[in-house]
Amino acid sequence: MNITELKNLWIQYQNQTVFGRYLPSQTVAEQLQFLKIPHDVVGYSESETPIHLLKFGVGKRKILMWSQMHGNESTTTKAVFDLVTMLMDASCEVTQSILSNCTLYIIPMLNPDGADAYTRVNANQVDLNRDAQERTQKESLVLRSIIDTVKPDFAFNLHDQRTIFSAGPNNHSAVVSFLSPAGDAERSITKSRVQSMQVISAMNELLQQLIPNQIGRYDDSFNINCIGDTLEHEGIPTILFEAGHYKEDYDREKTRSFIFYALVKGLTAISSNTFTANDHKEYLAIPENEKRFYDIIIREVSLKGQIKDIALQFTEKLSDTTIIFVPKIAAVGDLSNFYGHREIKGAKRAIRHYNDVVEVVPEVEMLKFYLNTELFSV
Question: Which residues of this protein are catalytic (predicted)?
């Protein structure tokens, strides 16, 4: 499958009814009805919100994927509904190939309570991705039950990552990152890890043609409380997907397309068994993520007589049904080894209202605010 074919799939199947950063649990219910998707309610959240499981295909290879384990990480959920839109078209040759060789089990939203509140944690303030062993939460028990029932050959763990990450120590934002989690403290390269690395290598090869040098690899430090590490410990090839920041794409609609491409490529590689042609060492060559980015850096301003850089990071807050991006000062000093998704030349002017830098301004007005000369003394 080449880039042109994938782009045509994206144009044809992008789900126009799902968009933005805020995707509450109602979105899932609406999509199930809108697309007439066969599904089962496989359990309930701590607040008794239904958790749905979708099933597609009749093939021998079983793939389980889940999204929005963290409620404020919605980009991969959007891509999942793009994928589901494609899977619902029985006339699509790609769909036919995938579903004849694979059976897909999809949980589009594991943490509906967190999604409604736009928080990482669930209604009990528990991070579900640290609850894989104790399984104190209903959502964790639902996922574990599905894993034990399905016994997947591959697991896709779908997440968002913050805007801070670079692909290596360079001025390249990590638009998409992957991880083949370790299954032990020694980070052993086991058979299951090799398989997940091979699939990631196939997806990376594709995405490098679209966003060169903007694919990152997560640190594989072992934590048995994380679901990916638990599954790899059990010998289940697991792939962590992380949707990151593309330039000027705070709604992550562009990143969403790259996740869709990666999902389609990964599934076709597994369904055709062509992922085995990739050397897992290609995965190890993907640059590891580093924290080199801020949302805004104002370069070279005079602060109390000293020339410094000011870095601002957005925090995301839910206001009604809209996500507001609020700037907070994250660092002040020599930030020459860091990069801003937006950089503003301070031209060594003096800050007049230093405290006003943290003024709450909607993200769409952000650039105008910081270019306003009233911020600086004359």
Answer: 288 (proton donor/acceptor)
Alpha helix (H) ranges present in the chain?
A: 3-13, 25-34, 75-87, 93-101, 112-117, 138-150, 191-207, 227-233, 253-272, 281-284, 366-371
Beta-bridge partner residues of 376: 351
Entry field: residues in the chain? 378
Candidates 73, 139, 232, 288; catalytic one: 288
Helices (H) and strands (E) in the chain, counts: 11, 14
- Confirm whether 242 is a catalytic residue: no
Q: Which CATH number fits domain 3-291: 3.40.630.10, 3.30.413.10, 3.40.50.1780, 2.40.340.10?
A: 3.40.630.10
What is the per-residue DSSP string for 51-118? EEEEEEE--SEEEEEE--SSTT--HHHHHHHHHHHHHT-TT-HHHHHHHHHEEEEEES-S-HHHHHHT
CA distances from 328 to 54, 118, 135, 353, 356 (A): 40, 19, 35, 15, 10
pLDDT tens for each residue of 248-302: 999 999 999 999 999 999 999 999 999 999 889 999 999 999 999 999 898 888 8
**40 DSSP β-pair partners:** 53
What are the angstrom distances between the C-alpha of 279 and each of 41, 76, 198, 265, 284? Answer: 39, 26, 6, 16, 10
- Is 32 in a helix, a strand, or coil? helix
Which pairing describes strands 176-179 and 238-243: parallel, antiparallel, or unpaired? antiparallel
Segments making up each domain of the chain, as ranges: 3-291, 293-375
